[in-house]
Amino acid sequence: MQFGFRAKHSTETANCFLLENVKSKMDKGGVVGAVFLDLRKAFDTVNHEILITKLSKFNFSPDALRWMKSYLEGRTQCVRVSNELSPTLSYDVGVPQGSILGPLLFSLYINDLPSVCTGSEVQMYADDTVIYVHTKSKQQAAQELTTVMVQVTKWLSDSCLHLNVKKTVCMFFTKRATDATEPDVYVSGEKLQVVSDFKYLGIILDSNLSFKKHVKKVIQITKFNLANFRFIRNCLTTEVARLYFKSMILPHLTYCLTSWTQACYTTLKPIQSVYKQALKVLNRKPNSHHHCYILRKHELLSWENLVQYTDACLVFKILNGLAPPPLSIFVKQKI
């Protein structure tokens, strides 16, 4: 399923769907084995002839196909530095990046990838692709992923796309204790790196979905910005300080919040502490000052209410058709 460059889809819904799907499978027992693909210069290696052929299968009219071919062919590029221009170079592959059509054309180009991944599930956000299987053991998951990757490699070759094997990784999600040695997954005879954590769409996933490393990273980034905030706070008006808080503190704390706030209380408690510290810097109050007054003054939510509000917004979108339809499965399960 493609979550990139589509209405009602986002990194939040992509992460939420993947994690809810993985967690539901983990709850049933067994192992979820996943391969995170890394494509080398994916947007720049799209073959125009193959793209036109694929567009014809979407019932594009002959006139539309000719127009699209004209749009893609005969493009040149150069580099400007100050008033100097480099010689122009023509290029006959790739989709125009920075354009409106570019991302859409790329999504259509890789749209049929899931069809070759039999026996597995595929989730895509642009070229960020994860392929995963649910099995009884890691060994079985590794075998099935190796089999799937044979078909994926052939599809990539036929589509003139190139897999960066060194950056493509494998992870096994399980509630069981991590084994000393992990089974191997192979791609074209090369062994994939098996990792215990991986950053996918801005969220650090770990093998048991504890989110400890992600929370630690969020706190690290937020504290850095908070130190800068504390240093310049006396030079800022209340309005500018509030703007800094909402643009440099909150986004780091709340990015894809619905995906990782189901972590245990002890993991999330430091996040709440950092949030309260930021509130006190905003209002130029010492750490001993209670934060409830600050919340009322600046019309902000407490951390607990912020989490609940974010969850409620996503549920509202799902129930009212404003989010990807597959997410409704998980809402119905919990209702």
From TrEMBL:
This is Reverse transcriptase domain-containing protein. Residues 1-205 form the Reverse transcriptase domain. InterPro entries: DNA/RNA_pol_sf, RT_dom. PANTHER family: REVERSE TRANSCRIPTASE DOMAIN-CONTAINING PROTEIN. It comes from Salmo trutta.
